[in-house]
TrEMBL record:
Compositionally biased intervals (Basic and acidic residues): 19-38, 87-105
Ranges annotated as biased composition (Acidic residues): 48-59
Protein name, as recorded: Conidiation-specific protein 6
Region: Disordered, residue numbers: 1-105
Transmembrane segments: none
InterPro entries on file: Conidiation-specific_6 (IPR018824), UPF0654_domain (IPR052670)
Superkingdom field: Eukaryota
Cross-referenced Pfam families: Con-6
GO cellular component, one term: cytoplasm
Entries under PANTHER family matching the protein: UPF0654 PROTEIN C11D3.01C-RELATED
Length: 105
């Protein structure tokens, strides 16, 4: 039986996706932005990778087990997977390698 409660983080994520989708009308984007504003802006814990600079460190949410002040092991694992994925461009693989090299320093 599906729950009638919606997860605010998922709702905010969907609204953010609407804002960045080129196939969505300006009217729909405006509506999504208004709903996000009413929700209090971006939901905590939903940070797009584009929002982090390569040199920027993040503050790990409490109780996640992630290291504070650095990249989590899941993020670094994602970059390692990028290196082995045949569907990833050489440019993306180089970026992933650069991030991994910086994390070891």
């Amino acid at each position: 039986m599906p729950s009638t409660q919606k997860n605010p983080g998922n709702v905010a994520g969907g609204l953010k996706a609407t804002l960045h989708n080129d196939r969505v009308s300006d009217e729909a984007k405006q509506s999504a932005q208004e709903r996000l504003d009413r929700m209090g802006g971006p939901a905590q814990g939903n940070v797009l990778d584009d929002d982090l600079d390569d040199d920027e460190e993040f503050e790990a949410p409490a109780g996640t087990g992630a290291k504070s002040g650095g990249r989590s092991s899941q993020v670094l694992g994602g970059y390692k997977a990028t290196l082995k994925n045949p569907r990833v461009s050489d440019e993306a693989k180089q970026h992933a390698q650069d991030v991994l090299d910086k994390s070891e320093a």
